Amino acid sequence: MRRARRSAEDLYKRQEEARKARIRGLRYTLLGFLSALVVMVGAKVRHPKISLKSPMMVLGALVLGTLLMIAIASRRDE
């Protein structure tokens, strides 16, 4: 049994929905990174003896890795 071919309009609609979902996911990811940064800075203000060098390096590596994954995924979708 063969499935009916999808129209170009359906394909365009699915691609547009996928693009919107990616943008929404990127917003949530950036919001999560920003909230983690705010918490770390708040902890530093509250407890000045805490060193932020290591946590900032970890957060930076996570941001870099996430941006790399987003770049690879966007290339694959093209």
What tags apply to this protein structure?
single chain, mainly alpha, 78 residues, elongated
Number of domains: 1
Give the DSSP E fraction (strand runs of 2 or more residues): under 5%
Described by strand count, sense and barrel closure, the largest sheet is: none
Q: What's the overall geometry?
A: elongated
Transmembrane segments: 21-43, 55-73
Keywords: Membrane, Transmembrane, Transmembrane helix
Structural features, described:
It is a single chain. It contains 2 helices and no strands. By secondary structure, the chain is an all-alpha fold. It has one domain. Helix 1 packs antiparallel against helix 2. The two termini are 30 Å apart. The model has no long low-confidence stretch (mean pLDDT 84).
Helices and strands, with pairings:
Elements: H1 8-46, H2 53-77
Helix pairs in contact: 1-2
The gist of it:
By secondary structure, this protein is mainly alpha-helical.
